Amino acid sequence: MHSKHAGADRTGISMRHPRPGAVRRWWILVLVLGLAGAPIPAHATPPSPFVSLHTAAVPADTLNPGIYRGKVSNTGSAWRVIRESSQRLLEPDTRILRYTTRYTISTELANKIIEVATDEGVDPDLAFRLVRVESRFHTRARSSQGALGLTQLMPSTARALDRSLRSEADILDPRTNLRLGLRYLRTMIDRYDDVRLGLLAYNRGPGTVDRALRRGKDPENGYSRKVLGSGANRYAGAGRLTGSDSSETRSTGERR
Question: Of 108, 115, 134, 168, which residue is the catalytic one?
Fold first, then answer.
């Protein structure tokens, strides 16, 4: 027979078990806050004996002071943190879906372009436009002049950017090709402080662009218009990601 006081221990202290709903809500909050980069305070324990969580600490001044006191003192602030964290988590997937739909490419390739472009300080939107014009997203594209891969790098330029490359297969590797091509593009945009001239230097080589500018001529050959687009679809960004370190040393080389 079960006593109605089965929840009390031998000391007479009531041992109440947490409601399943409360447990779920606590762990949902912990999960979202943890993914957002917030530390879980040592004194904030779950309503049931689970294993402890370890999360990376962040500066105290970045945290919402209305939370992390063992209870939520500001419900509006808590929901704002949860909502913003969820949006940050979903944003990459949203971008991948947008690019895979727009360019009819695999999610794997779209994700790779976004990751590499971000690492190299290039606006992913511009990176997709460049790869579309250069190779139509064919990883093993090869031009009659010998340019290779997604970003159509000339072997001499690729090796100037990365002297560890030993073969065409190395240059054709999608991630390597994207990394070097977008690094070169970022270098050219930094050199001219202009996305249009940077694209022309990427296509024609900086020597050709410099000579045209010295003569007071426009080095345009139609390439930048293909990449940037026109009308409502024209690219209007600066080509560089805000906050990227443009002073970082990058190797350069003539492309064609």
Answer: 134
